[in-house]
Amino acid sequence: MIPRARLDSVIEADIQALIDHGVRESRTLDYKRDWPADRDARIELAKDVCAFANSLGGDLVFGVHEDDGAAAAIEPLQLVNLDAELLTLTNTLRDLLEPRVSGGLHPHPVPLASGGHVIVLRVAPSPGAPHRVTKDNHFYARTAVGKEPMDIHGIRNAFAFSGSLADRTLEFRSDRIAQLSAGQGSRPLQDGPVFACHVVPVSAITRRDAHAVETLLQSATVLQGTAPAGVDVGQPAVDYDGVVVSGGRDGQGRYSSYVQLFRNGCIEVAAICEVDDRGVPPHPTLYPFRPEHSLVRTGLPRILEALATLEVNAPAYVFVSWLNVHGMRVCIQRQNRLEGFPALPEHLRHIIGPPVYLEDFEGNPAEVLAPALDVLWNAVGVAHTQTDFAAAN
């Protein structure tokens, strides 16, 4: 891929750098001199998209001439109606693949100072893989030298891998929850219920790359802004799993929150929740507004920014969990007025939100996280989170 995790930040200088350094086509990068203007060209392009979606994802760069696989020159594209062309292409490509790629196709036009554009079409690795091209019924995979049809063994392995991808993501979250609930997280936490968020990029499961410690430390400085407001946060520190940022340390060496950046690009946020156990209301009560507000307003945006600095691309799974909440009530507050304290069901020790799939890193955090945040409120009979994300901290 072009070395920019955020597609919308790719500019002409990035394209020129590919040429200046003679960057070669690879498993995640392919150059196309011409725009696929007709049906036959788009069918051929669908094979490339299929191969990327079935493999590690990648960038198709239109408007760049290659010489023996290396970027050689910019060939500006002159498209009369740019937006219409991009929409038509992405819709056509989705229709040519089975199952359809519901998301994961992201075109980005790069304006050129001399006029015209280079267009980058980013294809995400697909959790719905393997896909096939409907016109020839072939499944394709991407190799170091281009695309190739899968043989029967490759197809069988692709189906097996696709089925295990979500399972492996859930296993990571389950393992981390087990450690947190047992008090064995990345940092010792103070007593109380724990609000946890896990972000698992698909590339962390499919590629299993280990990022250098120096890169992790640089990215972790962004994560210092994920702590709840008012919590003093220390400098990023190297630990067994990668790099951790922790805050709110007490006299016993325990913390109120931490953010763990794993070597493979996964991120774990863990924070002790505010609880009122003074007897009014009569049972320990959870106030979810602060962690939810913090995650939506600063936490998730900072996490995605940190992934961008690591050049970790979408897609990714996001999980939200509330741990050690047995016997608690939940405060319902609307427009700064307390309106009730319903009890969580007696049998629940943890509230485990469903996985949220991010096709890209551009969405509104409140809308993206809503399915995961709503589960706590569903447990007390409320349809959706009652947190006012527009309010100031």
TrEMBL record:
Keywords: ATP-binding, Nucleotide-binding, Plasmid. Gene3D superfamilies: Schlafen, AAA domain. GO terms for molecular function: ATP binding. This is ATP-binding protein. The keyword Nucleotide-binding applies. InterPro entries: Schlafen_AlbA_2_dom, Schlafen_AlbA_2_dom_sf. Residues 25-150 form the Schlafen AlbA-2 domain. The keyword ATP-binding applies. Pfam families: SLFN_AlbA_2. It comes from the Bacteria.
